[in-house]
Amino acid sequence: MRDGVFEAPGRINLIGEHTDYNDGFVLPIALPHVVRITAARRDDGVLRVASRQAQGVAELRLVDLAPGAVTGWVAYVAGVVWALREEGHPIGGFGLMVDGNVPLGAGLSSSAALEAATALAVTELSGVSLDRRTLARITQRAENDFVGMPCGIMDQSASLLARERHALLLDTRTMATEHIPFDLAPAGLALLVVDTKAPHRLVDGEYAARRRDCHRAAELLGVPALRDLDEPDQDLPDRLARRVRHVVAENARVLEVAELLRTDRIREIGPLLTDSHTSLRDDYEVTVPELDVAVDALVAAGALGARMTGGGFGGCVISLVEDTAVEACTRAVRAAFADKNFTTPDCWTATASAGARRADHVPAGVD
Protein backbone atom coordinates (compact mmCIF):
# COMPACT_ATOMS: atom_id res chain seq x y z
CA MET A 1 0.00 0.00 0.00
CA ARG A 2 1.47 3.32 -1.07
CA ASP A 3 -0.58 5.93 0.73
CA GLY A 4 -2.82 6.52 3.70
CA VAL A 5 -3.98 8.92 6.38
CA PHE A 6 -2.76 8.63 9.96
CA GLU A 7 -3.56 10.67 13.04
CA ALA A 8 -2.21 11.03 16.55
CA PRO A 9 -3.60 13.00 19.49
CA GLY A 10 -2.23 15.66 21.74
CA ARG A 11 -2.27 14.94 25.44
CA ILE A 12 -3.11 16.34 28.84
CA ASN A 13 -1.13 15.12 31.80
CA LEU A 14 -3.50 14.64 34.71
CA ILE A 15 -0.59 14.48 37.14
CA GLY A 16 3.09 13.55 37.13
CA GLU A 17 4.93 16.64 35.91
CA HIS A 18 8.68 16.60 35.31
CA THR A 19 8.85 13.04 36.58
CA ASP A 20 9.34 11.23 33.27
CA TYR A 21 13.00 12.18 32.81
CA ASN A 22 13.55 11.13 36.42
CA ASP A 23 12.43 7.53 35.66
CA GLY A 24 9.18 8.24 37.50
CA PHE A 25 5.44 7.81 37.03
CA VAL A 26 3.04 9.82 34.87
CA LEU A 27 -0.71 9.72 34.28
CA PRO A 28 -1.72 11.38 30.99
CA ILE A 29 -4.80 11.12 28.79
CA ALA A 30 -5.00 11.60 25.04
CA LEU A 31 -7.11 14.44 23.68
CA PRO A 32 -9.72 14.41 20.90
CA HIS A 33 -7.49 16.98 19.17
CA VAL A 34 -5.19 15.34 16.59
CA VAL A 35 -2.44 15.91 14.09
CA ARG A 36 -3.37 14.20 10.82
CA ILE A 37 -0.88 13.23 8.14
CA THR A 38 -1.73 12.21 4.59
CA ALA A 39 1.25 10.24 3.35
CA ALA A 40 2.44 8.80 0.04
CA ARG A 41 5.67 7.00 -0.71
CA ARG A 42 8.22 8.48 -3.11
CA ASP A 43 10.96 6.72 -5.04
CA ASP A 44 13.46 9.59 -5.26
CA GLY A 45 14.90 9.63 -1.73
CA VAL A 46 13.20 12.95 -0.93
CA LEU A 47 11.08 13.88 2.06
CA ARG A 48 8.53 16.48 0.95
CA VAL A 49 6.58 18.08 3.80
CA ALA A 50 3.78 20.65 3.77
CA SER A 51 1.15 21.79 6.25
CA ARG A 52 -2.32 23.26 5.93
CA GLN A 53 -1.43 25.51 8.88
CA ALA A 54 1.82 26.90 7.42
CA GLN A 55 3.03 28.33 4.15
CA GLY A 56 5.63 26.73 1.94
CA VAL A 57 6.87 23.23 1.20
CA ALA A 58 10.05 21.66 2.55
CA GLU A 59 11.96 19.24 0.34
CA LEU A 60 14.74 17.36 2.09
CA ARG A 61 17.04 14.66 0.75
CA LEU A 62 17.13 11.70 3.10
CA VAL A 63 20.91 11.48 2.83
CA ASP A 64 21.19 15.06 4.12
CA LEU A 65 19.16 14.52 7.30
CA ALA A 66 21.28 15.21 10.37
CA PRO A 67 20.77 16.90 13.76
CA GLY A 68 20.79 20.66 13.30
CA ALA A 69 20.19 20.49 9.55
CA VAL A 70 16.44 21.20 9.78
CA THR A 71 14.72 23.88 11.84
CA GLY A 72 11.16 24.80 12.73
CA TRP A 73 8.22 22.44 12.90
CA VAL A 74 9.50 20.37 9.96
CA ALA A 75 12.37 19.19 12.20
CA TYR A 76 9.93 17.06 14.20
CA VAL A 77 8.89 15.22 11.03
CA ALA A 78 12.40 14.93 9.61
CA GLY A 79 13.74 13.84 13.00
CA VAL A 80 11.42 10.84 13.12
CA VAL A 81 12.51 9.69 9.66
CA TRP A 82 16.16 10.27 10.62
CA ALA A 83 15.81 8.31 13.89
CA LEU A 84 14.14 5.37 12.16
CA ARG A 85 16.84 5.25 9.50
CA GLU A 86 19.57 5.59 12.15
CA GLU A 87 18.21 2.45 13.78
CA GLY A 88 18.39 0.54 10.53
CA HIS A 89 14.78 0.63 9.38
CA PRO A 90 14.29 0.95 5.60
CA ILE A 91 12.39 4.23 5.41
CA GLY A 92 12.49 5.82 1.97
CA GLY A 93 11.14 9.05 0.54
CA PHE A 94 7.69 10.36 1.37
CA GLY A 95 5.30 13.13 0.57
CA LEU A 96 3.55 14.24 3.76
CA MET A 97 0.69 16.71 4.14
CA VAL A 98 0.14 17.75 7.75
CA ASP A 99 -3.14 19.01 9.18
CA GLY A 100 -4.56 19.13 12.67
CA ASN A 101 -6.28 20.93 15.48
CA VAL A 102 -4.01 20.44 18.51
CA PRO A 103 -3.57 23.99 19.87
CA LEU A 104 -0.03 25.16 19.19
CA GLY A 105 2.11 26.50 22.01
CA ALA A 106 -0.41 25.43 24.65
CA GLY A 107 1.65 22.66 26.22
CA LEU A 108 -0.65 19.95 24.84
CA SER A 109 2.13 18.15 22.96
CA SER A 110 1.38 19.06 19.38
CA SER A 111 4.99 18.15 18.67
CA ALA A 112 4.63 14.62 20.06
CA ALA A 113 1.38 14.19 18.11
CA LEU A 114 3.22 15.23 14.94
CA GLU A 115 6.03 12.80 15.70
CA ALA A 116 3.66 9.92 16.48
CA ALA A 117 1.57 10.44 13.35
CA THR A 118 4.74 10.62 11.25
CA ALA A 119 6.15 7.46 12.80
CA LEU A 120 2.94 5.52 12.28
CA ALA A 121 2.60 6.68 8.67
CA VAL A 122 6.13 6.03 7.46
CA THR A 123 6.57 2.69 9.23
CA GLU A 124 3.24 1.20 8.15
CA LEU A 125 3.59 2.35 4.57
CA SER A 126 7.18 1.08 4.47
CA GLY A 127 6.20 -2.34 5.79
CA VAL A 128 8.18 -1.81 9.01
CA SER A 129 6.49 -3.46 12.00
CA LEU A 130 7.36 -1.90 15.36
CA ASP A 131 5.42 -2.04 18.61
CA ARG A 132 4.10 1.20 20.06
CA ARG A 133 6.61 1.33 22.93
CA THR A 134 9.46 1.12 20.44
CA LEU A 135 7.89 3.87 18.37
CA ALA A 136 7.63 6.02 21.49
CA ARG A 137 11.33 5.56 22.20
CA ILE A 138 12.29 6.35 18.60
CA THR A 139 10.14 9.47 18.46
CA GLN A 140 11.60 10.62 21.77
CA ARG A 141 15.06 10.15 20.27
CA ALA A 142 13.99 12.31 17.33
CA GLU A 143 13.03 15.14 19.67
CA ASN A 144 16.05 14.74 21.95
CA ASP A 145 18.80 14.22 19.40
CA PHE A 146 17.49 15.76 16.17
CA VAL A 147 15.36 18.66 17.39
CA GLY A 148 17.46 19.22 20.52
CA MET A 149 14.65 19.30 23.10
CA PRO A 150 15.57 17.11 26.13
CA CYS A 151 12.04 15.88 26.82
CA GLY A 152 11.12 12.69 28.61
CA ILE A 153 9.08 9.91 27.02
CA MET A 154 5.65 10.75 28.43
CA ASP A 155 4.26 12.80 25.56
CA GLN A 156 5.12 10.32 22.81
CA SER A 157 3.87 7.42 24.93
CA ALA A 158 0.55 9.12 25.62
CA SER A 159 0.01 9.86 21.93
CA LEU A 160 0.81 6.31 20.88
CA LEU A 161 -0.52 4.18 23.74
CA ALA A 162 -3.59 5.92 25.18
CA ARG A 163 -7.09 4.42 25.20
CA GLU A 164 -10.48 6.09 25.03
CA ARG A 165 -12.06 6.81 28.42
CA HIS A 166 -8.87 5.78 30.22
CA ALA A 167 -5.84 7.43 31.75
CA LEU A 168 -2.45 5.89 31.02
CA LEU A 169 -0.39 5.07 34.09
CA LEU A 170 3.16 4.80 32.76
CA ASP A 171 6.27 3.75 34.60
CA THR A 172 8.85 5.58 32.52
CA ARG A 173 11.70 3.37 33.77
CA THR A 174 10.22 0.02 32.77
CA MET A 175 7.66 1.30 30.23
CA ALA A 176 5.05 -0.78 32.05
CA THR A 177 1.56 0.61 31.50
CA GLU A 178 -1.88 0.34 33.05
CA HIS A 179 -5.03 1.72 31.48
CA ILE A 180 -7.15 3.10 34.32
CA PRO A 181 -10.80 4.07 33.69
CA PHE A 182 -11.23 7.85 33.46
CA ASP A 183 -14.75 8.72 32.38
CA LEU A 184 -16.00 11.78 34.21
CA ALA A 185 -19.47 12.25 32.74
CA PRO A 186 -21.19 9.40 34.67
CA ALA A 187 -19.86 10.94 37.89
CA GLY A 188 -21.25 14.37 37.00
CA LEU A 189 -17.77 15.81 36.58
CA ALA A 190 -15.81 17.53 33.86
CA LEU A 191 -12.18 18.28 33.12
CA LEU A 192 -12.03 21.98 32.33
CA VAL A 193 -9.00 23.08 30.30
CA VAL A 194 -7.86 26.69 30.38
CA ASP A 195 -5.44 27.68 27.63
CA THR A 196 -3.92 30.72 29.28
CA LYS A 197 -2.40 31.97 26.00
CA ALA A 198 0.72 32.75 28.00
CA PRO A 199 3.71 32.51 25.67
CA HIS A 200 6.29 29.91 26.65
CA ARG A 201 9.09 31.93 28.23
CA LEU A 202 12.59 30.50 27.99
CA VAL A 203 11.02 27.07 27.94
CA ASP A 204 13.84 25.25 26.17
CA GLY A 205 16.65 26.59 28.32
CA GLU A 206 14.69 26.43 31.57
CA TYR A 207 13.40 22.93 30.88
CA ALA A 208 16.95 21.74 30.24
CA ALA A 209 18.11 23.49 33.41
CA ARG A 210 15.53 21.62 35.51
CA ARG A 211 16.65 18.36 34.00
CA ARG A 212 20.28 19.15 34.80
CA ASP A 213 19.32 20.00 38.38
CA CYS A 214 17.65 16.62 38.80
CA HIS A 215 20.51 14.67 37.30
CA ARG A 216 23.00 16.53 39.46
CA ALA A 217 20.94 15.86 42.59
CA ALA A 218 20.74 12.15 41.77
CA GLU A 219 24.49 12.10 41.24
CA LEU A 220 25.15 13.78 44.59
CA LEU A 221 22.75 11.40 46.36
CA GLY A 222 24.25 8.33 44.72
CA VAL A 223 21.06 7.05 43.09
CA PRO A 224 20.43 6.23 39.41
CA ALA A 225 17.51 8.67 39.28
CA LEU A 226 15.29 10.63 41.65
CA ARG A 227 12.69 7.90 41.16
CA ASP A 228 14.77 5.82 43.59
CA LEU A 229 14.15 8.16 46.55
CA ASP A 230 11.31 7.48 48.97
CA GLU A 231 11.85 10.65 50.97
CA PRO A 232 13.26 14.05 49.98
CA ASP A 233 16.86 14.41 51.10
CA GLN A 234 17.66 17.86 52.43
CA ASP A 235 21.45 17.41 52.43
CA LEU A 236 21.71 19.30 49.17
CA PRO A 237 22.02 22.91 48.03
CA ASP A 238 18.66 24.63 48.43
CA ARG A 239 17.72 24.73 44.74
CA LEU A 240 18.49 21.04 44.25
CA ALA A 241 16.69 20.11 47.47
CA ARG A 242 13.54 21.81 46.21
CA ARG A 243 13.73 20.02 42.86
CA VAL A 244 14.08 16.69 44.67
CA ARG A 245 11.18 17.52 46.99
CA HIS A 246 8.90 18.11 44.02
CA VAL A 247 9.86 14.95 42.15
CA VAL A 248 9.54 12.65 45.18
CA ALA A 249 6.18 14.13 46.17
CA GLU A 250 4.89 14.17 42.60
CA ASN A 251 5.65 10.49 42.08
CA ALA A 252 3.71 9.72 45.25
CA ARG A 253 0.79 11.86 44.06
CA VAL A 254 0.63 9.99 40.73
CA LEU A 255 0.34 6.64 42.49
CA GLU A 256 -2.27 8.02 44.89
CA VAL A 257 -4.37 9.47 42.08
CA ALA A 258 -4.14 6.16 40.20
CA GLU A 259 -5.43 4.28 43.23
CA LEU A 260 -8.28 6.74 43.74
CA LEU A 261 -9.33 6.28 40.12
CA ARG A 262 -9.15 2.50 40.42
CA THR A 263 -11.48 2.61 43.41
CA ASP A 264 -13.94 5.05 41.82
CA ARG A 265 -13.11 7.94 44.17
CA ILE A 266 -12.61 10.49 41.44
CA ARG A 267 -13.60 13.57 43.43
CA GLU A 268 -10.81 12.89 45.92
CA ILE A 269 -8.12 13.54 43.31
CA GLY A 270 -8.94 17.27 43.29
CA PRO A 271 -6.74 18.35 46.24
CA LEU A 272 -3.84 16.33 44.82
CA LEU A 273 -4.06 18.30 41.58
CA THR A 274 -3.83 21.56 43.51
CA ASP A 275 -0.97 20.23 45.64
CA SER A 276 0.87 19.37 42.43
CA HIS A 277 0.50 22.93 41.18
CA THR A 278 1.77 24.37 44.46
CA SER A 279 4.82 22.12 44.24
CA LEU A 280 5.47 23.09 40.63
CA ARG A 281 5.16 26.76 41.57
CA ASP A 282 7.25 26.80 44.74
CA ASP A 283 9.73 23.92 44.48
CA TYR A 284 10.14 23.40 40.74
CA GLU A 285 9.58 27.04 39.73
CA VAL A 286 8.01 26.38 36.34
CA THR A 287 4.79 28.39 36.59
CA VAL A 288 4.10 31.92 35.35
CA PRO A 289 1.55 34.46 36.65
CA GLU A 290 -1.15 33.42 34.16
CA LEU A 291 -0.99 29.81 35.36
CA ASP A 292 -1.10 30.79 39.02
CA VAL A 293 -3.98 33.23 38.54
CA ALA A 294 -5.98 30.60 36.64
CA VAL A 295 -5.51 27.99 39.38
CA ASP A 296 -6.41 30.44 42.15
CA ALA A 297 -9.52 31.63 40.30
CA LEU A 298 -10.72 28.10 39.58
CA VAL A 299 -10.30 26.91 43.15
CA ALA A 300 -11.99 30.05 44.48
CA ALA A 301 -14.90 29.42 42.11
CA GLY A 302 -15.47 25.96 43.56
CA ALA A 303 -13.30 23.67 41.44
CA LEU A 304 -12.34 20.43 43.19
CA GLY A 305 -8.73 20.97 42.16
CA ALA A 306 -6.58 22.64 39.52
CA ARG A 307 -3.02 22.56 38.26
CA MET A 308 -0.82 23.57 35.38
CA THR A 309 -0.22 20.77 32.89
CA GLY A 310 2.78 20.25 30.66
CA GLY A 311 6.29 21.56 31.02
CA GLY A 312 5.23 24.93 32.38
CA PHE A 313 6.42 28.50 31.65
CA GLY A 314 3.06 29.05 29.93
CA GLY A 315 0.43 26.80 28.41
CA CYS A 316 -2.64 25.26 30.03
CA VAL A 317 -4.28 24.68 33.39
CA ILE A 318 -6.62 21.76 34.01
CA SER A 319 -9.34 21.66 36.62
CA LEU A 320 -11.65 18.97 37.96
CA VAL A 321 -15.07 20.55 38.31
CA GLU A 322 -18.68 19.54 38.79
CA ASP A 323 -20.26 19.56 35.34
CA THR A 324 -22.79 22.09 36.63
CA ALA A 325 -19.92 24.45 37.54
CA VAL A 326 -18.16 24.61 34.16
CA GLU A 327 -19.71 27.92 33.16
CA ALA A 328 -19.14 29.55 36.55
CA CYS A 329 -15.50 28.46 36.63
CA THR A 330 -15.00 29.67 33.08
CA ARG A 331 -16.44 33.08 33.95
CA ALA A 332 -14.27 33.30 37.06
CA VAL A 333 -11.06 32.63 35.12
CA ARG A 334 -11.91 35.11 32.40
CA ALA A 335 -12.79 37.77 34.97
CA ALA A 336 -9.51 37.18 36.82
CA PHE A 337 -7.55 37.47 33.57
CA ALA A 338 -9.38 40.65 32.60
CA ASP A 339 -8.55 42.11 36.01
CA LYS A 340 -4.85 41.43 35.36
CA ASN A 341 -5.00 42.61 31.74
CA PHE A 342 -4.01 39.14 30.56
CA THR A 343 -5.07 37.83 27.14
CA THR A 344 -8.54 36.27 27.29
CA PRO A 345 -8.06 32.51 27.78
CA ASP A 346 -9.71 29.74 25.81
CA CYS A 347 -11.71 27.36 28.01
CA TRP A 348 -13.10 23.97 27.01
CA THR A 349 -13.76 20.53 28.47
CA ALA A 350 -11.65 17.50 27.58
CA THR A 351 -12.39 13.80 27.38
CA ALA A 352 -9.94 10.91 27.36
CA SER A 353 -9.52 9.73 23.77
CA ALA A 354 -7.75 7.03 21.78
CA GLY A 355 -4.10 6.99 20.78
CA ALA A 356 -2.56 7.16 17.31
CA ARG A 357 -4.33 5.26 14.56
CA ARG A 358 -4.88 4.93 10.88
CA ALA A 359 -7.78 7.18 9.91
CA ASP A 360 -10.88 5.61 8.41
CA HIS A 361 -11.55 8.07 5.64
CA VAL A 362 -10.18 7.70 2.14
CA PRO A 363 -6.88 9.60 1.79
CA ALA A 364 -6.29 12.40 -0.67
CA GLY A 365 -2.95 11.66 -2.31
CA VAL A 366 0.11 13.87 -2.01
CA ASP A 367 3.10 13.94 -4.28
From TrEMBL:
Transition state stabilizer (site feature) positions: R11
Binding positions for substrate? E17, H18, T19, D20, Y207
Q: What does the UniProt entry say about where the protein is found?
A: Cytoplasm
In this protein, which residues make up the domain named Galactokinase N-terminal? 4-40
Q: What is catalysed by this protein?
A: alpha-D-galactose + ATP = alpha-D-galactose 1-phosphate + ADP + H(+)
Instruction: State the EC number(s).
Output: 2.7.1.6
Detail which positions bind Mg(2+): S111, E143
Q: Has the keyword Zinc been applied to this entry?
A: no
Quote the catalytic residue positions: D155
Where's the GHMP kinase C-terminal domain? 258-338
Keyword list (alphabetical) reads:
ATP-binding, Carbohydrate metabolism, Cytoplasm, Galactose metabolism, Kinase, Magnesium, Metal-binding, Nucleotide-binding, Transferase
**Binding-site positions, ATP:** S51, G105, A106, G107, L108, S109, S110, S111
Named in its record, the pathway it takes part in is: Carbohydrate metabolism; galactose metabolism
Name one cellular component (GO) term. Answer: cytosol
Principal EC category: transferase
GHMP kinase N-terminal domain sequence ranges: 76-161
Q: Name one GO molecular function term.
A: ATP binding
Give the UniProt family note. Answer: Belongs to the GHMP kinase family. GalK subfamily.
> What's the protein called, per UniProt?
Galactokinase
